[in-house]
Amino acid sequence: MRTEVDATRRPFRGLAAFFWTEALVQLHEELAMATSMLVQGVLLVFVWVLNPRLIGVALVGAVIFSVFAMGQRVLNEAAYIRIDHKANDLYLAGPLSPEAYFVGMSAGILAVYVPPVFVVGALAAIVAHLALLPILLLVGLAAEVWVCSASIGYVFSTAFRDNRAIWAYSSLFFNIFGVLPPVFYPFGLFPAPLHPVVLLMPPSAAAALVQSVIGAAVLSSGERTLAVVGLAVETVALFAFAVYWARRTVRGR
Amino acid sequence: MSGVALRSENLRKTYFSKGTPPVEALAGVTMEVRRGERVALLGRNGAGKTTFLRIASTLLRPTSGSIEVFGFDADRTPDKVRPYIAVVPQEGKPFFHLTPREQVYTYLRARGLSRETAKARTEGALEQMGLGGFADRLAITLSGGQRQRTMVATVIATEAPLLFLDEPTIGMDPFARRDVWESLRGLTQRGSTILLTTHYLDEADALSHRLYIVERGRVIVTGTAEDLKRSVGGTLKVTIPAGRPEIERFRSFGSCVVDGEVLTVIVAPERLGELMDVAVRSGLSVTVGPVTLEEAFLRVVGRSINED
């Protein structure tokens, strides 16, 4: 037989190749790429019309919202591949590890959609006069938001049997996590009794922390701790659960 | 590696869902596929073929029973089985935003093949599947048959030790189907094993060393295509343009079916002359041809349904 079989089980086996596969798929979807910043752009215009002085905060929010949105693309993509194409069976009944499938898909989407975010990030740095430390903080927090969002997206993608049902939930996620809480506007404008709630949501927690560093929001030490610890714990826990879930859901029951 | 590629013992699968009665998809399937064999799994829609293939390919857990692939327990140690297998899923489609060349190549890379091997195998598989002229067009612009060819090319290029093909030629034209048959024959000659499902009985006849027929989750027949054809009482089919009134005259020669004004008799070759004498004496013309696997399948499965 010509094929040598490497039967060793390795976590994340095939990750780089599947990352490249997904990136290639996304690179062929020019329309999706061209419209990827549409919502953020519209929200920025809203903020600019309502209060031009908040545009710096809104640009920081746009960076965070954008990486959150990329994670949510994972929901649509994973469900589409599974429901419409059944290509997950092609890939998962083989040596590619389930965790590599999940992470490779997520990272492939990120790689293609991240360049415009750098442009928005550069604008945010200029307009909001971000120093090196806030920039590094923004990058780190955005990475955590992406991990949380991609993990949630992948796990939820396995729950659907019909793509049309996903559109509604996807829109719900966008609005509940990205538009409603103080991501594009200052944390202080949100009703104080609900601060703990929004500080437990990854995008608004990240936005509040960056806003506090650049002086656009005032967080109590308790709120700061809640945001930092909450986001870190959510990142680790959601990623670990998504990896576990990816392995568990390879097989139907 | 043992001489048996796949073995299942009393494999059962029952689907449970809230608000509906349980569905027993497999009711104790025992099966063995030897290395290098091409085995067809036949049955009506919903007979349990795809369920069996999904369990064997580690994508579904059985309710009870055992299943081994190259000696590894496919239920308890799926990670050990997966490197040995490749699957064409039923109704599977390639990524619409990849070209066939990209689809095959990236899939092979994801399975861990080196760049050089993946590239060579990709070109070979595209050529075998007649995709040369479409290899650099996005799959979204291809016809259904061309997409299906891309799926098959993706899987045959793996040259995996055990290939599961769930209706691999669905939607393909007769030329493309024959390209697939040729490729599959080549793969088994090089040591791969193939288990496929199909509703094209000519495909099963042309391709399989052995076949299993499943009905309502049970294996009702196993053997070669020739065995199955013989099991219906003869290997020749005699068609007589006469309706029901003539049936008594020919009943003793074999099983008779009347369809409108046409009487069909399945007869053993050694009794053909005698039957023709009777027909000529009665002033009836006859047409003789071989029993097809489809006719044998219809009779065997029909008999099983009637017995149930």
Describe the structure.
The complex is a heterodimer of chains A (253) and B (308). Chain A is an all-alpha fold and 253 residues long. Chain A has one domain. Chain A contains twelve helices and no strands. The radius of gyration of chain A is 19 Å and the shape is globular. The mean pLDDT of chain A is 92. With 308 residues, chain B is an alpha/beta fold. Chain B has two domains: 226 residues, P-loop containing nucleotide triphosphate hydrolases (Rossmann fold); 58 residues, Alpha-Beta Plaits, CATH 3.30.70. Chain B has eleven helices and 14 strands. In chain B, the strands form three sheets. Chain B has a six-stranded mixed sheet, with helices on both faces. In chain B, strands 2-1-4-5 form a four-stranded antiparallel sheet. In chain B, strands 12-13-11-14 form a four-stranded antiparallel sheet, with no helix packed on it. Chain B is globular and about 70 Å long. The mean pLDDT of chain B is 92. The chains are: A mainly alpha (253), B alpha/beta (308). Chains A and B meet through helix 1, helix 4 and helix 5 of A and helix 2, strand 6, helix 3 and helix 5 of B.
Helix/strand layout:
The complex is a heterodimer of chains A (253) and B (308).
Chain A lengths: L14 H13 L2 H5 L3 H13 L4 H31 L1 H6 L5 H16 L1 H13 L4 H26 L5 H17 L15 H5 L2 H12 L7 H28 L5
Chain B lengths: L3 E14 L2 E15 L3 E5 L6 H8 L7 E6 L2 E2 L4 H4 L3 E4 L11 H11 L4 H14 L15 H13 L5 E5 L7 H16 L3 E5 L3 H7 L2 E6 L2 E6 L1 H6 L5 E5 L6 H4 L5 E4 L2 E6 L4 H10 L5 E4 L2 H15 L1
Parallel strand pairs in B: 3-8, 3-9, 6-7, 7-8
Antiparallel strand pairs in B: 1-2, 1-4, 4-5, 9-10, 11-13, 11-14, 12-13
Helix pairs in contact in B: 3-4, 3-5, 4-5, 5-6
